[in-house]
């Protein structure tokens, strides 16, 4: 039997995932928004156009919430009900799977009804590409790619680190991922300052992205896909993407849906040519809907895997304590 604190963590993650299913993202007083304001304050006080300043910024902005979460975990070590509630709240705040799938379905609806203007307005809810010149096939592709990547970032990543490190893992992962979104992109201001945050996010997502890809392969039949094809495309194309992690998720999604991803992406004044992932045609609105369904399926599987892993770790710790 697992130690009570590990069992509380496992139950808390499951409850937090259920809260996300029922309510989606908290509409007011979202902790991630509060963290963003804290990080912006630290940035204003520490910014300099160099990597050392960026490393100090990342250390402070990640270290403070992780230290607070670790202190809370210690205080609730022998209080399983309080610990369960804390982990459930943190998991709910960290997860974004329900909102991600909902945004994907909205995009599918607009594309199916030929509402191109509405689809272009919808895209910024999913990714940072310039939608102004995109036609329906490119809007569908951008959505499928975003759903694939964010299934890892918004679902599997927090759960993976919750399984590994409990409450501090959930909080720390969400802090790292939020910093990457804030300062980890390529721009004149953050080209050097954001390097540490971007690299930290890469490291934090090495395992979650590959777990996401593996779960996507396993779940392919839910949307009529072939797991063998999904595995083949993942293994062949996962390393072609400029990101060490996004390509894993996007390639497995492309294989599971039987579509082709990649191509020309415009981010404001910056243009990127991404390699082709997959062998099929360009995604259709139906494929966007299938991607959302696949994301929800992967999320449900990830909850089960994370809770089981945390319980197993607790049994391992109990066994060590008896020696």
UniProtKB/TrEMBL annotation:
InterPro entries: Cobalamin_biosynth_CobD/CbiB
Gene Ontology, cellular component aspect: plasma membrane
Predominant place of localization: membrane
Keywords: Cell membrane, Cobalamin biosynthesis, Membrane, Transmembrane, Transmembrane helix
Transmembrane segments: 292-313
Protein topology in the membrane: Multi-pass membrane protein
Associated pathway: Cofactor biosynthesis; adenosylcobalamin biosynthesis
Subcellular location: Cell membrane
Family according to the record: Belongs to the CobD/CbiB family.
Function summary: Converts cobyric acid to cobinamide by the addition of aminopropanol on the F carboxylic group.
Protein's name in the database: Cobalamin biosynthesis protein CobD
């Amino acid at each position: 039997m697992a130690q009570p604190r590990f069992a509380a963590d496992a139950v808390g993650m499951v409850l937090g995932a259920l809260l996300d299913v029922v309510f989606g993202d908290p509409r007011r007083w979202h902790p991630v928004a509060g963290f963003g304001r804290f990080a912006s304050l630290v940035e204003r006080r520490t910014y300099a156009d160099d990597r050392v300043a960026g490393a100090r910024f990342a250390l402070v902005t990640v270290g403070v919430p992780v230290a607070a979460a670790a202190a809370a975990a210690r205080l609730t070590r022998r209080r399983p009900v309080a610990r369960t509630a804390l982990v459930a709240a943190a998991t709910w705040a960290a997860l974004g799977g329900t909102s991600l799938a909902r945004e994907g379905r909205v995009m599918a609806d607009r594309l199916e009804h030929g509402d191109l203007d509405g689809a272009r307005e919808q895209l910024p809810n999913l990714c940072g590409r310039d939608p102004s010149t995109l036609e329906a096939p490119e809007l569908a592709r951008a959505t499928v790619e975003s759903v694939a990547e964010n299934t890892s970032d918004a679902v599997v990543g927090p759960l993976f680190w919750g399984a590994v490190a409990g409450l501090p893992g959930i909080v720390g992962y969400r802090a790292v991922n939020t910093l990457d979104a804030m300062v980890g992109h390529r721009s004149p201001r953050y080209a050097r300052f954001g390097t540490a945050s971007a690299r930290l996010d890469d490291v934090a997502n090495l395992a979650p992205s590959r777990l996401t890809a593996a779960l996507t392969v396993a779940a392919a039949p839910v949307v009529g896909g072939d797991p063998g094809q999904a595995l083949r495309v993942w293994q062949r194309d996962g390393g072609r993407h400029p990101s060490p992690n996004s390509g894993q998720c996007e390639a497995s999604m492309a294989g599971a849906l039987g579509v082709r991803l990649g191509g020309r992406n415009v981010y404001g004044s910056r243009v990127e040519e991404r390699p082709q992932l997959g062998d099929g045609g360009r995604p259709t609105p139906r494929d966007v809907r299938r991607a959302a369904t696949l994301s929800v399926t992967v999320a449900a599987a990830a909850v089960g895997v994370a809770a089981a892993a945390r319980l197993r770790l607790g049994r391992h710790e109990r066994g060590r304590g008896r020696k």
